[in-house]
UniProtKB/TrEMBL annotation:
Catalytic activity: Hydrolyzes free adenine bases from 7,8-dihydro-8-oxoguanine:adenine mismatched double-stranded DNA, leaving an apurinic site
Gene3D superfamilies on file: Helix-hairpin-Helix base-excision DNA repair enzymes (C-terminal), Hypothetical protein, domain 2, Nucleoside Triphosphate Pyrophosphohydrolase
Organism: Mesoflavibacter zeaxanthinifaciens subsp. sabulilitoris
GO BP annotation list: base-excision repair; mismatch repair
Any Pfam family matching the protein: HHH
Protein name (Swiss-Prot/TrEMBL): Adenine DNA glycosylase
This protein's UniProt keywords: 4Fe-4S, DNA damage, DNA repair, Glycosidase, Hydrolase, Iron, Iron-sulfur, Metal-binding
Cofactor note: Binds 1 [4Fe-4S] cluster.
Gene name of the record: mutY
Amino acid sequence: MNFSTKLINWYTVNKRDLPWRSTNNPYYIWLSEIILQQTQVVQGTPYYHAFTSQFPTVFDLANANEEDVLKLWQGLGYYSRARNLHWSAKYIVNELDGVFPDTYKDILKLKGVGDYTASAIASICFNEVTAVVDGNVYRALSRIFGIETPINSTPGQKEFKALAQQLIDKQQPAIFNQAIMEFGARQCKPKNPDCSVCPFKTSCLALKENKIAVLPVKLKKTKVTKKYFNFIVIISKNEKTILEQRIGSGIWQNLYQFPLIETEKPSTYNNIKSKIENLDVLADMNFDVHLYNDTDIIHKLSHQHLYTKFWIVSVDECIENGIDISNIKDYPVPILIGNFIDKFNF
């Protein structure tokens, strides 16, 4: 029995009933794949339902306001995915007359779409014979075939793509691709997989050589940097606060946050109070400051850890240019800010 037959037989018995598996609509498949980048199925499924409900067609998504898209995305992180999704929807509608591209090569032109996502959409929706390679596939292939080339290196990416392309079932590329992703997610799990029930247990080199725990191989990541964020939560006499939109190309682009004071190290009360006094919005106003959280809230991103404090500033006067506190949940904010808003309960 060859590789694809074993794999597809396993998939037939073990596949999960997931909402995007009941359609080959490329718009829905694309939505699911973008949502599931950097996101597990359990967390991503409610977002899939929310997006397909609020934006049932690519035209609905293209015509949406970016803030509405970001608000619906709130909590998933990696917000560039949402911005790219929105940009590409507008591209499909305005440049392609609303017709989703139907080849790997053309799908790859969509913003935020790489080899894996283009391969998934092209195979599942248009039966193109192009193999997917994601984290699950890297793990399964590296173990079964005993490959020690780092998966996050250029040679590794080429080697695994070529192997996956060699193995793909040319008659059933859609089923094969879904099967190998499911196999990596459910059977060949990162830690403590049950190899006794694996269909490849007699041929898996990692099992034979006791290398399950060390494969796949990854090059060490770049050093994570620490940043110290102090968010200034202003509450005025007329129940207004200040939210600022982040601009530029850094983290949380176009999302909203409370005024931010970033420092090189943990700040003292006096140090922050003196910086707050220099904020233009509080010029010549009387206010009181108190620290909301004595212990830093640590928010971990892929390349940096944010050590965060929230400082509550109560103002005795009215702020005319603020937003009504009652409307604060209408704004798309990073999950770090969203969690604070929920807990503080204004």
